[in-house]
Amino acid sequence: MSTWIRRIAPVARSLGTALLLTGTALAAQAQSVLRVAMAPETTPAEQAVRFEPLGQFLETRFKMRVKWVPVASEAFAVRALLNREADLVWLNGLSYVQAVVRAGDRVVPLVQREEDQKARSVFITKASSSIKKLPDLKGRTLSLGPSASTAENLMPRSALIAAKLRPDADLTAVPAANAAAVVAAVVAGQAEAGALGLATWERLVADKQVDPAALKVFFTTPVYTDHTWAVLADLPEGSRKAITGGMLVLEAVKGGREILKAQRAHRYTETKDAGYAAVRAAAEQTGQLQ
């Protein structure tokens, strides 16, 4: 077992415990083991740190066996859910709509961070750049994140199409592994512009990892819905209710606000499939719902 799996396993055990038991005796309704998977938004080490406060809090309240199912990408997260290799999976918006296309109403979204209901992507460039609007990108270089990313790839591409640009013909894409790499490419001059999630941009600025005097945002996309926790419809109803209820009350429990902060959330709210209309349309537009 690798080092990061050993580090994250206790957190996963605590997370699954709290999600299945919300302070009431649900053991009779819920399955005895909950398999949890989450596509990596950051490095495994950063994920462990991010969820550690939640794990520590939940370990003091509940007892339930959880099996952590490590996945290397969004595609593997979807596969783990659909192949019943994991029961509860954290998916980004694109992965969620792709899973629904493949499995229909067998995929059930449960809860998401409130922030995921009002996600946006931004286009950035150097403060001294002559780029002021999306059409100015024609003939230029643009750094984008992985194709599986909703915020760093899908929604920016959709915005380019709306601006009458052909992403693969009218400009040159500079691939980046993640949002931080997108910013680095623009700063280093490897790309004349870049696109990333607004929340990530704001966090990088707040953490002083970006000099807002050196870079500027020149376009912000319309609102769309991003990440969600999802399960298959045949997960016992008691488990589904416990997962949802446990996340929704987290804001009100002692230490909950600190836990939510570590997850970059103000609160959790129930996920509605209808909220993914924009992401679904963008995925169809870019040929990613085949």
UniProtKB/TrEMBL annotation:
<comment type="similarity">
    <text>Belongs to the phosphate/phosphite/phosphonate binding protein family.</text>
</comment>
<protein>
    <submittedName>
        <fullName>Phosphonate transport system substrate-binding protein</fullName>
    </submittedName>
</protein>
<dbReference type="GO" id="GO:0043190">
    <property type="term" value="C:ATP-binding cassette (ABC) transporter complex"/>
</dbReference>
<dbReference type="Pfam" id="PF12974">
    <property type="entry name" value="Phosphonate-bd"/>
</dbReference>
<keyword id="KW-0732">Signal</keyword>
<dbReference type="InterPro" id="IPR005770">
    <property type="entry name" value="PhnD"/>
</dbReference>
<feature type="signal peptide">
    <location>
        <begin position="1"/>
        <end position="27"/>
    </location>
</feature>
<dbReference type="GO" id="GO:0055085">
    <property type="term" value="P:transmembrane transport"/>
</dbReference>
